[in-house]
Design a protein that fits this description.
The protein has 135 residues and is of the alpha+beta class. The chain has a single domain, classed as TT1751-like domain (TATA-Binding Protein, 2-Layer Sandwich), CATH 3.30.310.70. Helix content is 42%, strand content 25%. The chain has a 6-stranded antiparallel sheet. Helix 1 packs across helix 5. The longest helix has 19 residues. It holds the Pfam family DUF302. InterPro entries: DUF302 (IPR005180), TT1751-like_sf (IPR035923).
Length: 135
């Protein structure tokens, strides 16, 4: 599923395992995990309920800098983010922004095609590994 540059893959495992797998895949790919934010825990601390919803903020300068050199405004969308979340039917999803869509948003799609293609391939591989049924 892709909506306005948002790519979502249904996970074959639950939110905790998907989050653990995503973290491991990011690290194995040499990406830096800058932050891991548990929105459900934040909601609970405010006395509210929220299905599992966890945000990962990650990246590396080698991938992001060429995009920011082309358009510094893309820094608002970098580092990259991925969201592990559970819908109201109990299905787990992994969502992330398509790097090519981000480049388009900032008007640098043509000049950053190769960079965004590489990023998209890497993110797709990471997402598939994190959401697969294999252990």
């Amino acid at each position: 599923m892709a909506i306005d540059g948002l790519i979502s893959l249904r996970s074959n495992v639950g939110p905790n395992e998907t989050a653990d797998r995503l973290k491991a895949e990011l690290q194995a790919s040499g990406l830096t995990l800058f932050a891991q934010i548990d929105h459900a825990a934040g909601a609970a601390s405010a006395g509210l309920t929220l299905r599992p919803t966890e945000l990962f903020v990650f990246g590396n300068a080698k991938g992001g800098t060429p995009l920011m050199q082309a358009a510094q405004t893309i820094g608002i969308d970098l580092p990259l983010k991925a969201l592990v979340w559970q819908d109201d039917a109990g299905d787990c999803w992994l969502s992330y922004n398509d790097p090519a869509w981000l480049a388009e948003r900032h008007g640098v799609a043509e000049t950053t095609k190769q960079v965004t293609a590489n990023m998209s391939t890497l993110l797709g591989t990471i997402a598939k590994a994190a959401t697969s049924g294999k252990t």
